Amino acid sequence: MKVTVVGAGYVGLVTAVGLSALGHDVTCLEKDERKLGLINSGKSPIYEKGMEKISIKAGADADLAGSDIILISVGTPTNPDYSQDLSQIESASMEIGKALADSSKFNVVVVRSTVFPGTTEDVVQPIIEKNSSKKAGSGFGIAMMPEFLREGTALDDFSHPDRVVIGIKDEKTREIIGRFLEPFKCTKFFTSIRSSEMIKYASNAFLAARIATINELSEVCEKVGVDIDDVADAIGADARIGNKFLDAGPGFGGSCFPKDVKALISNSERLGLEPAILQSVISANEHHTVRVLEKLEEFDGKEIAVLGLSFKPGTDDVRESPSIKVISKLIERGARVRAYDPQAMENMRKIFPKIRYCIDMDEALSGCDAAIIMQEWDEFRKSASYFKKILGDRPLLDCRRILTSKDAEEAGLSYLCIGRG
Ligand code: UGA
After folding, report:
1. From the CA of 75, how far away is ligand 1's center (Å)?
2. Number of helical (H) and strand (E) elements in the chain, helices listed first
3. Which residues are catalytic?
4. Whose alpha carbon is nearest atom 37 of ligand 1?
5. Atom 25 (ligand 1): residue with closest C-alpha?
6. 128 CA distance to ligand 1 centroid (A)?
């Protein structure tokens, strides 16, 4: 099928690359010259496994009217009051509407950006109808298909989804989307458009709450002399709970969980609700990240090495990374910070231009007064004796339990971690 993806951000690019691999004729419609330059020279503007080299078409214009499917994948940033800034959605809808005015085919417009229930039908659809002078359902199709792509494994998530969710409202659109989604053999949930929009928020809220819960339990485990991973393994074997997303760490970050939970809170409040659980997911997560540093209080004013700057391994994305809070707090307490990350140093340099960035882990650890492992990048998985040799008696705070306590003890390492008593 002929597909245009509007917006070559994270989701748009991964979607475009994934759909091309399935044999669709895909073009990315993107206005940013820098991104266009990179994509058209075969390079990805984002760091993502499997996208080191890409070959997709991209341009500031695209044949929208000739496309069978038009996916809207533009950004929906958060306003200061946590509501969504829909300006990119609105201008994409306007451009699509104008193009569809001259179209002789039944184009299907699919919203892929994360938007609050009601946005596709109350914002996107009327703008397209007004600018095309056509009606949804008869003149063009309208649908909503949320994404469930994790950074770092996004291409694999695209090709092998647990499920596909698609909101539609007319039979013709359902038939076209049914053919479009043929290659995906997973369960497909055809729902109302509003349900699809809500399912995306509900998924991220649930996952964020799950991580906030395991992190809070890790704090209790430390007090009562229990290993959180023993607890996670056993509760995860209960089919009702499941064993994924139970890794306690320094708090969740990224461009999705914090933003989506906050948007859900602000929209729920606007609807007169008091979303107590969602509010505490955010506050517990903030508290948890800061609490991590209580373990290194006596190092105020000293030189601390921070290993891992991205919000999780496998990406160069530092948005809402717990490392930002940790570095800010350390600086506030008078510490000097040196940092190392396999991919994210360039992005972190924009936030903290003055801290020392090291060329590798050895440089970061040599001569520091204490070290913190924030994320479980593979290259941080060294033996306890490696850390002992380089750190001597200076402490290592392991937020991802890369070492076992037994190995750390046997190596004589001064070892602190999250989630073990
Ligand atoms: C998340 C969702 O997992 C995707 O399904 C969704 O499509 C995406 O948001 C989105 O809305 O676009 P992502 O933010 O890329 O994906 O990353 P996750 O793997 O979900 O991790 C989020 C945060 O939780 C990270 O900081 C990670 O370190 C943390 N985390 C995750 C844990 O601390 N423990 C875990 O067990 C899992």
Report:
1. 18
2. 16, 14
3. 256
4. 245
5. 252
6. 33
CA-nearest residue, atom 9 of ligand 1: 256
Q: What is the pLDDT of residues 154-179, one digit of tens each?
A: 999 999 999 999 999 999 999 999 99
- The tens digit of pLDDT for each residue in 54-94 reads 999 999 999 999 999 999 999 998 888 888 899 999 999 99
Single-letter residue type at 153: T
The pLDDT assigned to 73 comes to 97
Q: How many residues are listed for the chain in this entry?
A: 421
pTM for the predicted model, two decimal places: 0.95
Phi, psi of 360 (to 5 degrees): -155, 180
Question: How far apart are alpha carbons 183 and 24 in whole angstroms?
Answer: 11
Largest CA distance in the chain: 74
Structure tokens at 379: 């290259």
**Distance between Cα 134 and ligand 1 center (Å):** 39
Q: Which residues line ligand 1 (CB under 6 A)?
A: 114, 147-151, 204, 207, 211, 245-247, 249, 252-254, 256-257, 311-312
Buried b (16+ CB within 10 A) or exposed e, 29-51: bbbeeebbebbeeeebbbbbebb
